[in-house]
Fold this protein.
Amino acid sequence: MGTSSPVVTVDTIVPMARPIGAGDELDTNYMDSLCKDHFLQRQYRKVDGGVLWSRNERNLDCTVTFQTHSILQRFMLHFDLLQLDCNDHLYVYDGAHATAPPKADLSCRNTKQQVGALFTRSNFVTLKYVTDNWGTDANGFRLVITAVKDPKHGCKEFRCKQREFCVSADLTCDGVDHCADGSDEDTAVLCPETTTELNTLNTTATVDTTSAANITADSGGSGASGTWVAIGAGGVVLAAIVAVVAACCACRHRANNQRTRLHSVQEMASSNGGGGSGSAGGEGATRLPGNPPPPAGPCGAARAGRLRRAA
């Protein structure tokens, strides 16, 4: 159409697939980046499998070519999404050049169910994508390209279930249906670790949600009760401290009163002729005849004073 059509380097288009269980997914490759014209894209490379995704690119007229690793292999193509505008065309050529009549001319009249799987007879496939300057976000395609080996050539890697094609073992359990029958992504037999990881993630999320709900419930119910219990216990402790301090003050006041009364009794005894050496309350003080010694302790001295006043 008057515009040069570069042959794109496959190594920069479709990297090797990796299992999802190892933490990596197959990279998606977009047509708008593949159709940029530079020197490296003119050298096509070999590929086991990959995905091409078109997202309503405007004013494209480009060609990309893929080659298998072995002459015994050929390509299988099938669509996960196919919804082209009526002025857009995707041409599929069985070979390394876009010269012979195309194997398929896909446009708005085609659906992925109608097209199904396309197979090349050679170990090359060439795609030519032409678009105009109008479209919607819904226009585009998602194309899975896989290098397959026919059953008659034997298989040392992975054998698809329905057609028994042999594909690279690196394409299994990568989240992409390369066999077009789902057998390379069989989570029950071939990829149990994928199902286990998904179940583990779901269980962990459920446990975390339940724990968060329980914590919220506890905070709203027993948390308030615990707060009031703590306040009550603090009040009891404070009341006990006040009571102890008051008792100590009362005891000290009572002891001071008892000492004052004892001093008065001793002075009265001295004025009645009971003088002698030593202090009034000392061990060498002279007692009046007929007066018994006061009982030990301040309370005893006070009791003795009361007895003398009564006499």
Q: What stands out?
A: Residues 222-271 form the longest helix (50 residues). Residues 1-26, 273-290 have pLDDT under 50 and may be disordered. The CA atoms of residues 149 and 175 lie 21 Å apart. The radius of gyration is 51 Å.
